[in-house]
UniProtKB/TrEMBL annotation, chains A, B, C:
Family membership noted in the UniProt record: Belongs to the metallo-dependent hydrolases superfamily. Uronate isomerase family.
The UniProt record lists the keyword Ligase: no
Pathway, per record: Carbohydrate metabolism; pentose and glucuronate interconversion
PANTHER family from the UniProt entry: URONATE ISOMERASE
EC number, as in UniProt: 5.3.1.12
The protein's name in its UniProt record: Uronate isomerase
Length: 480, 480, 480
């Protein structure tokens, strides 16, 4: 039976000189706590601390990296126990789904899943044989037994993972009850929320009508007027801050911003609420609202994250049967220089505003994003995102942004995941790749070793705390 | 006299650890047969098995990689014996043309021609001195003498090259007589055709009017009606399949597809045939026909290849004097996500349809193509194409597609060439680059050595056979 | 106190085999003279040979690479002594500005400034301790004392730097008095000008109205008529050639060219001069004028440089307070294939015309620029520019252009700088990166060592002299 391999030097550059430097850098930061300021885990896990059930439900069915690849090779989502639209779980034996996945594990060779999952299997569950058809049942049973034990409850794993902070993401129509329950429980784990108001801003969002009602209820504002609608956002931002939020997040298809007069805003808003906004007006409203969100961030200090460029639900048939987030979101070319100009004209020079830009279009790294972040005080670069959250993708991010934006206009790593068990694996990949990149700079005598060590620490914990307004825990002493 | 160098480790990574792994991988697959499912060799060569004449006519005058570079440095195409419009051969002494090429051989340093041609010179002709002014005549004579001998006839070289299958490309107005002659000859070499109907689909193609007539004649259908026109395609696809074709190929300037109603199709088709289609309507017709071709592929099982993004005949003066394919085709930015949507809405989830996407716009690798192929069952990624069919280009292809699409959504290598003698060289370059890429993954502990070995075999023969619906020859045993 | 590090192997690849090859290549060309055919130093320096004052005024306040990064981290430009609009110098103690820079020097880790400045500090000023807060005063004093000495006057440094030729850039409304003074002085240093008529071509340029008047005065032509306007350009081009110019330079936001009839040109010109040209007409006029400039280059032999793609003065507030060139120019996506077509239709096949293309959009390297330059006789590729004039940027340039355009369609290095003291540092970085790239090709057996040595020489001095029509100095013997 082939062994599960988690080589201590994995992901470090092959050249022996560079690898030795990288290994030293990595040794210094491998044990630092995990700061996870952007992700999609379910706060209910930490509120109830209930046990997860089995490998399929926890690791396979919710992981779009896994089921999209399997689907691309002709494997039916039902056979993988992926929920259908409305959360309906297909009547698939989860063990059979796991076997199917195991039998096709080779499809993931060369993908980041082939780094993340063995880390979960080996480090979290202590498995030491490789996954394949012959070991599928052993995996399924081992994982299932572990999950039934107290040590594998969400809070226990949170502590074992040495997580300093974990941010979840909730919509503007969320009552934050799970976060309230976490706070009320007295548990010390720091789980905070993030304000993601897409579904009450984007008139084309499929939950817009429903979520606007909840938004009104929860804020107590009259969201029928432009002033009341803005006031509702301010209220809810405060609600979210009370649950630890230090950031907002915005994921529209473009990065467009606008700077309309109040009269224009009122007219546009009336159209939107009257259901009469066409595609151009919907886009203009989203653009104006990005500017409004920046204005509120200037007021309340929340860090603003912009995640544009995803063509959501590209596969119409799959969207009809299975709904959102089923691996059918496809990136598109994204423009930032003109798109952000209206917002930057107003707030670009604000020294205390923090706007973190993400992209799915790597061509903008060196051409647009690094030049923008290397100039405007308010702009910072988010890490390589989604399809690019991978060894090669992270390497390209550093190679294409550092020379113009430097390291200090970046914000550390985001795991951006709902796969809680893979969080240590994902942070570990990022740490290894960053150390490898820094090691190359040292090996090429472009940087001193002590500078690289300082930067490794910054990229792991320092910059993320600063960018998201997080305090360093008292117990940790920053290097001099 | 400088020696011709064909170092056994050429193109393998310099790092000793990685090179050693790459060398082992390469050793295992270097001797595998050549499967060439997409190219532009002349079937007449294999039908008549006539001898080629000289180095200039065979290796220089038809090779646009060579004469475009020489032209860019101010060398006249006439002096290189490149045919003028209508195939008129200039009255240039072919030996003089060869000398001119030899004297300028240094221009190709760092280009893929500097890998391909020495392989041809050394491995095919047994030459062991480097090409330059002083050896030009020796080359010309050696090659000329060889070509006159039976061992250098097309069929003999085909066998010597260990070619398992070679696909040529013919238009919809081609009578396939050479392929018929090959079949009738009893020769065992497997030379098949490919259905490329561009000139009867694109109203802006310079041969459209002429080829539509041939298309009608050969199909026996009334191509004046939309129904008859589609029936003619079905007939001709069957004709091509009878000559071994398993694939179609489509090379329009964009990847746009459409999904019009039958009534709309009929109206548009009438305009096209009446010569009244403007540029937008011509584009819409090509778009609709890509969808029709996909529909027919669902019916008849032929693999569909899409090669968009070339701005053909950019140099107006050269097009007037020398016609098509004279090195003046320039890539352009190409969009896939919206362009392919109408076709994917209809057939994207068909498990048995195979649509292979190519690009000249590398920015789409990670942003559009890998995400599309990593989701839709029908989509596969063609190899790095044309300007990117080169060591760095192939490396970028793997680095930018693998993490999202994996290896198994790719289809092996295409040589895409009419330079028959360079086919082994081109496949060899691809094998070396793939082994180098795999070796890096192994050296960085991102993959096991046995996995890399399996993949090297897949990338060389396994995936191409699968993608193009080719059977593995009985004699070869796939590794367990 | 940490030492200033200028490792002899800096920027060479880490792999020992490759580094050894790179080191040998570099040793052969490190001492070659500097040919600087494109830059922005002030000719007054060489005309008057006056001493510079202090580190802040010379090295910090004019360097947009430095102050843009500091600004992006919230540091006020006033505190850095950066001049305000109209050249007003803020009342900042230059020593305090220098201390602020020194205290933030870590921000430049990983940027090209971290390679250039230590070279200036170490090689030009002989400083051997690293820059930080504790050494800021030592730096400031050491540099100030040196600058007061004769050995650090502009002409003395020019000679010490072994500069064979230095081109400055002047507008069409410049009287070239400094160049005349240099010529009249009898000093042997070769400082030439470059014709940059942007401000009399671009109706949207903020100096258009003013500069057109000077242009008329200096040319003595009636620039109110289209014919007179063109004649004025011809006159001024001749004036510039008399001051050594061999090149023109054009920096509009797009690369668009046009080919209007004379009647159309006259009508468009009348609108432009009447202040009635809208944005589209201004763009069309710039496009037509690029074609006119190419036409004049065919006539007078001047090399034409095209630098498109910069969104100038993106930060409106900063432009209002500080004016142009304050680090707020942001690249944008740039298209060349259709943009250049009208000009190429006319002059693309001219064997003696030289048009050098630059880009801020790296996606065009492999997709558009290398295919264009690898075909059209008139086109050459300028080196990696501005944000991409950096180790990684230069590496990407070679990796993405060489396979299609070769080395011989490139033109050597441009330092493009007004930071005179950094010129040796910048050329040194380019030489090291080129040698590293060539060394990799040798190490991978893609090129012979003697070929790489020949190319290293070409990339350093040969190609630049040829592209800009410069004669090699008699004393230098080219390698056989």
């Amino acid at each position: 039976m082939p062994k599960l391999s988690l080589h201590p030097d994995r992901l470090l550059p092959a050249d022996p000189t560079t690898r030795a430097i990288a290994r030293e850098l990595y040794a210094e930061i491998a044990g630092l706590p995990i700061v996870s300021p952007h992700g999609h885990t379910d706060p209910e896990w930490f509120a109830t601390d209930a046990a997860w059930t089995n490998a399929t439900e926890l690791l396979l069915a919710p992981d779009h990296y896994l089921f999209r690849m399997l689907y691309s090779q002709g494997i039916d989502l039902d056979a993988l126990a992926v929920p259908r639209k409305g959360g309906v779980i297909p009547a698939t034996d989860p063990r059979e789904a796991w076997r199917l996945f195991a039998a096709n594990w080779k499809l993931f060779r060369g993908t980041p899943s082939s780094m993340w999952l063995p880390h979960v299997f080996g480090e979290v569950f202590g498995i030491d044989v490789a996954l394949d058809e012959s070991t599928a049942d052993f995996y399924y049973d081992t994982i299932g037994e572990a999950l039934a034990s107290p040590a594998f409850r969400p809070r226990a794993l949170f502590e074992r993972f040495n997580i300093e902070l974990l941010a979840t993401t909730e919509g503007a129509g969320d009552d934050l009850k799970h976060h309230k329950a976490i706070q009320a429980s007295g548990w010390q784990g720091k789980v905070v929320t993030t304000y993601r108001p897409d579904s009450v801003i984007d008139p084309e969002h499929d939950s817009f009508a429903r979520d606007i009602v909840r938004f009104a209820d929860l804020s107590g504002e009259n969201v029928e007027s432009w002033t009341g609608y803005l006031a509702a956002h301010r209220k809810r931002r405060a609600d979210f801050r009370a649950m630890g939020a230090t950031a907002t997040d915005h994921g529209f298809v473009t990065a467009r911003t606008a700077n309309l007069s109040t009269v224009e805003c009122e007219a546009l808003f009336a159209k939107v609420m009257g259901g009469k906004a066409g595609a151009d007006e919907a886009e203009l409203f989203r653009a104006q609202m990005l500017t409004e969100m920046a204005r509120m961030s200037v007021e309340d200090g929340m860090t603003m994250q912009i995640h544009p460029g995803s063509t959501r639900n590209h596969n119409a048939r799959l969207f009809a049967s299975h709904g959102r987030d089923k691996g059918a979101d496809i990136p598109r070319a994204t423009e930032y220089v003109e798109a952000l100009r209206p917002m930057l004209d107003l707030f670009g020079n604000e020294p205390d505003l923090k706007v973190i830009l993400f992209t799915l279009d790597e061509t903008t790294y060196a051409r647009e994003l690094a030049p923008l972040a290397g100039h405007y005080p308010c702009l910072k670069l988010g890490p390589a995102w989604w399809f690019h959250d991978s060894p090669e993708g992270m390497r390209r991010f550093r190679e294409m942004t550092t020379e113009t934006a430097g390291f200090y206009n970046t914000v550390g790593f985001n795991d951006d995941t709902r796969a809680f068990l893979s969080i240590p694996a994902r942070h570990d990949v990022a740490r290894r790749i960053d150390c490898g990149f820094l090691a190359r700079l040292v090996a090429e005598h472009r940087m001193e070793d002590w500078e690289a060590a300082e930067l490794a620490h910054e990229l792991t914990v320092g910059l993320v705390r600063k960018a998201y307004g997080l305090e360093a825990p008292a117990r940790e002493v920053e290097p001099a």
